[in-house]
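[job 4471] stage=fold_predict status=RUNNING
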Amino acid sequence: MSQLPALILAAGRGERMRPLTDHTPKPLLHVQGKPLIEWHLEALARDGVTQVVINTAYLEEQFEPTLGDGARWGLRIHYSHEGHDHGGALETAGGMAKALPLLGDAFWVLAGDVFVPGFRFDPQAARDFAAQTDWGRMWLVPNPAHVPTGDFALNAEGRILRKDHAPSGTPAYTYSTIGLYRPAMVDHLTVGQKAALRPSLERAIDAGRLSGTLYTGPWVDVGTPERLAELNRRPTSQG
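[job 4471] inference complete, writing structure tokens
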């Protein structure tokens, strides 16, 4: 099996990043000398991914002129235009559902607005996931200051649990916005339906079909102008 395709989520408005995002989509803001999304494209190409889908809505006309067809990274980029087709962003699960025809039976998903320079899109992890029956595998990170209690619990067997249903003492972590998924995660949604990801993840948890891995490398949710400025004060490629 060749490396799985990837969906980069890049459709959002980036309200908390205003005024920087008034004229530039958040994934195209520069981090350490290049658009944030280029860090992802370089990492995906390095790890053997060749097919990438980018979903767009806000200022979506800027993406293709900036990134092209992906040839400069050895990638083939396809675009899923939510703004043109549906009048606006469909949120994470809705964006995944719309992009399914371009993604196949299993695929990577990652947000275009996180900086995670050391993450490896491990081909073995992709092969292992493709051979299993889980609907998803999420990478979690230690809780940053802005998510002090985490998003989900992760037990010793590598299963994701709802925090409020987990046994006492089960650690909770924050979703990195990187995961491996199957169409089953979102195929209950109608194409064009606006839908957040969390209800679909909780549906998978309740079905016993969601696993997780803790990632402890550098990771930054580039969600405010202050975090972006801090990244740009650091030496290149440090998180």
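[job 4471] summary: The CA atoms of residues 25 and 59 lie 6 Å apart.
[job 4471] exit 0
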